[in-house]
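Batch manifest, entry 17 of 40.
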Amino acid sequence: MAILPPASAYAVEGKWPKPAWIGICLLAGVLFALRPFGFLSVIAMVAVGVFFADVRPAVGGRRR
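Output type: C-alpha cells
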C-alpha cells in the first residue's frame, strides 16, 4: 500500500519519504515471516500500524 500514492503526496503531507515507508513495510514483512512473535517483529508491526493509521489516510486520498 505504500507503493501506490505518488512520492509528492508524502512530501505535501509532511510525512517521511516514500522509500522510507516502503522499506519499513518490507522489513516488517520479512521480520514477521521469520519470527512472527519476536521482539523486533512486534516493533515492526507497530510501525506498520502507524503507517496504516496515520500515513496512509493522509497520502492515500491523492490520485494523480
